[in-house]
Amino acid sequence: MGSRRGILWFRNDLRIHDNEALVEIMRTVDEIIPIYVFDERQFTGHRFESIPKIFQTRALFLIESVQNLRDNLEKLGSKLIVRVGIPEEVIFDLANEYKTTWTFCNRERTLEEVSVQDSLEEKLWSIGQEIHYSRGKMLHYTQDLPFPISHTPDKFANFRKETERIVPIRPPLDSPISIKPLELEIEEGNIPLMSDLGWSDDFKNNQFHGGENEGLKILKQKLKEIEDKSSKQLQISPWLANGSLSPKFVYQEVQTLGKSSKKVVKELNKNLYLRDYHRLISKKNHKQLFDEHGFGNQEINDQKWDIEILKQWINGQTENDYVNACMKELYTYGYISHQQRRIVAYYLIQELKIHWLLGAAYFESVLLDYDPCSNYSNWQRITGISVDQKGEQPVNFESLDQLLDPESEFRSKWATCAIDFAYI
After folding, report:
1. How far apart are CA 178 and CA 200, in angstroms?
2. 1-136: CATH homologous superfamily?
3. Quick one: CATH architecture of 137-172+212-284?
4. Does residue 33 contact residue 98 with C-beta atoms inside 8 Å?
5. Nearest-5° angle of CA 192, CA 197, CA 203?
6. Does the structure show a pLDDT above 80 at 393?
7. 82 with 190: CB under 8 angstroms?
8. Structural domain boundaries of the chain?
């Protein structure tokens, strides 16, 4: 009997540690073809004909993450095949040419991603092959939950009450010590440069760098800062978003903090549970996640579709200096705090009266930690069209500057920074 060969399709699980698809394929086949495909549609496509799906901040972070994944696979004796194209076509051609048995990958839950995996699955069926799905983005395994996805509680407080004290979090899966070398002669392919994806090779981000190794380093550093009382925030969401860090691994590490950090641990756990809630509630209401009326199916009467005003907000050219500083930092690094996101989102909707979908699309383009479920759910919450509105109060912009930046340090830092989002 000949050896069994399988494709390991990396998606939003760009790591070696706690990677279920990697563990499962090693148990199942004799020879593994690991691959990552840069979906060309993500780099040429736009939201609402104006906003690029992926801005330079996200593009660079992804390139760095894929490079680190390739490096780590090589240390284990394997390779990472890299292509730029249409994933469902590239992987089907690979499966057909090399007569594989299965394709292993992480299952996605939102519209475009589901369309890609469904298309690939249909193509593979035509040649007698199948997709073996795994999970990697959630803290919980859905089969461990005390309810089916269709019965996910609408309120986050209820979701947390029904899970946190009842459902144990499984320990992370062990990382492989080695992977059998790929004996096939397959061109590895170059990881694209920024210019290959439509951006400048000169762009650098001196605050965030992609990849599993960086994510693990930052996690360790932030946990130490919390232990030392010099910080209360992890700020690891960029690495969680593209799967460079496992949520189960992060949860496990957070629990090692001492009793003196009990309140911080509780808040960090809450944020990890919130990620799962957004994913499950989005799956439950998948048709409404990107709908202008939201999960609550509510009418919106006072929001304009004005691209010029949107550009002023993006470029930090509004009448509020604190909002302007936040937007310039977001443009530069692809990251601002949750509180700052809430503030700029409220300003766009409450003060500028611009449609929430335009703001959500810009966040999708630029945020390093973009996740469709969390992003669009949070914008619905701000707009008041979600199923869970508890705790959301509009921002008082008159007192904002003095409350958050009394010495004007933050506003001064960004005051002379001029940006021009020229891709809209």
Report:
1. 36
2. HUPs (3.40.50.620)
3. Alpha Horseshoe (1.25)
4. yes
5. 90
6. no
7. yes
8. 1-136, 137-172+212-284, 307-415
CATH superfamily ID and name for 307-415: DNA Cyclobutane Dipyrimidine Photolyase, subunit A, domain 3 (1.10.579.10)
Average pLDDT over residues 84-100: 97
Total length of the chain? 424
- Could you identify the residue written with the tokens 């809630």? 277
Q: Please, are residues 136 and 12 in contact by the beta-carbon 8 Å criterion?
A: yes
Tokens at 206, concatenated: 């001196």
Tell me the C-alpha to C-alpha distance, in Å, between residue 218 and each of 44, 68, 178: 32, 15, 25
* pTM score: 0.96
Supply the angle between the helices 307-314 and 356-366 in degrees, to the nearest 10: 40
Q: Which amino acid is at 251?
A: Y
Q: pLDDT (tens digit, 9 = 90+) per residue, 317-337?
A: 999 999 999 999 999 999 999
List Cα–Cα distances, 143 to 135, 146, 168, 170, 353, in angstroms.
Answer: 11, 8, 12, 12, 42
